[in-house]
Structure formats: structure tokens, C-alpha cells
Amino acid sequence: QVYLVESGGGSVQAGGSLRLSCSASGSIFSISNMGWYRQAPGKERELVADITYSGTTNYADSVKGRFTISRDNPQNPMYLQMTSLKVEDTAVYYCHARTKVVALGTSYDYWGQGTQVTVSS
Fold first, then answer.
1. Judging by beta carbons within 10 Å of its beta carbon (0-12, 13-18, 19+), is residue 75 exposed, middle or buried?
2. How confident is the model at residue 74 (pLDDT cuts 50, 70, 90)?
3. What 8-state DSSP symbol labels residue 91?
4. Percent of the chain with pLDDT over 70
5. Is the backbone peptide bond immediately before 41 cis, with ω within 30 degrees of 0?
6. Which one of 40, 80, 91, 106 has the fewest CB atoms closer than 10 angstroms to its CB?
7. Is residue 103 scored above 70 in pLDDT?
8. Cα dihedral sign for 49, 91, 28, 24?
9. What is the DSSP track for 9-71?
10. What is the pLDDT of residues 13-55, one digit of tens each?
């Protein structure tokens, strides 16, 4: 089991910055990927950014160049540095972790409780 706790959300004016943190506990040695998702009211949950255990990163086009995902070794804690925030970035942001047992060909997904980010004009 992996337990994820997010922090750092809040309210900010457009153009401002926030840094989200995600701390993992439990079987963290089994984590293969971690990332950030967000869900705005009336919208589906979407990937914002993720990072592999080896450090490879991936970003949604809508945040590329503005957000940066990073982590301390190994994958804990994980951060999302958000700059040049826009009103459309308003959402609940969720930390995600995927564990993988290669020998069994199985993966498991874990989610944090979410943290609200509100960007006002």
C-alpha cells in the first residue's frame, strides 16, 4: 500500500505561483511512476505532469513551460512548481503513484486526497 498526502494548494491571483508537494509513505520502494492530475468542476480528471522513477518527465501541453515537476530521491517528496498561473488552472490537484510488480505483470494506482488550487483574475 502507498499513502499519498498533498499540500500547498490555495488561492492566488492570475500570474502568480504556487508549489504543491506530495509525500508518500508505505511501500514506496515499489513506485514506478508519480504524477499530478487535476479536475475542474464539470470536467474529467486530466494528467498535468508525471515523472518516472528514473526522472523522465512528461507534461500536458496546456502547462508546458509554466509548470515543473520534480522529486527528491526516491520519488519522495514530489513537487509541482506552478508559475504564470491562469484562471483556467483552477482545479483540485491530485497526487498519483503507480506501483508495478514486473514478475506478475500487475500495476496498482494510488491517489492522494486532493488539494484545491484557485486562480482569480
1. buried
2. low
3. E
4. 98
5. no
6. 106
7. yes
8. positive
9. -EEEETT--EEEEEEEEESGGGEEEEEEEEE-TTS--EEEEEEETT--EEE-TTTTTTEEEEE
10. 999 999 999 999 998 888 889 999 999 999 999 999 999 888 8
- Look up residue 76 and give its amino acid: N
Residue located via cell numbers 510488480:
101
Retrieve residue 89's grid coordinates: 488552472
